[in-house]
Amino acid sequence: QEGESKKQELENIAKQELEKKREENKEKAREQIPILLEKIMAGESGEIDGITIKNKICFTSSENYDDYFHQTFGKKLIAKDSKAAFCGSFESGPTVRIMVYAGAESGVNSGEIAKEIASILGGSGGGDAKFAQGGGKDTSKKDKAVAKAKSMILG
Prior knowledge:
This protein has 155 residues and is of the alpha+beta class. Helices cover 50% and strands 24% of the residues.
């Protein structure tokens, strides 16, 4: 009985730590995203904070970004410029996930990219031309999936 409650207590502490980390990441993203968007809209290209940028088409597989960052950044980027697109890959628990956002004039098809990358990872993905996501549990193929996603979005 006592061992069980100790285990529960440790699980609760772990959950609280995870939640705290998520909140810290959100706070950081709220500060970081407007600065990144400003640089991208100003036409900066190359590598900024782990994000590869080429003519407002962006890609990252940086460990520093979670799903909150990817969703918020992707939505805001394509809302600012219909020629912009974003593809982010990240680990979430036992899976590797991908999110793709594409402005109407970007020439990027989010659904195609998400489906292709998820299939490399042994999972599934889908969506429409503007937004799609997917993932899979075959983390051994992460590097291959990341390389393919990067080449598909950046050309």
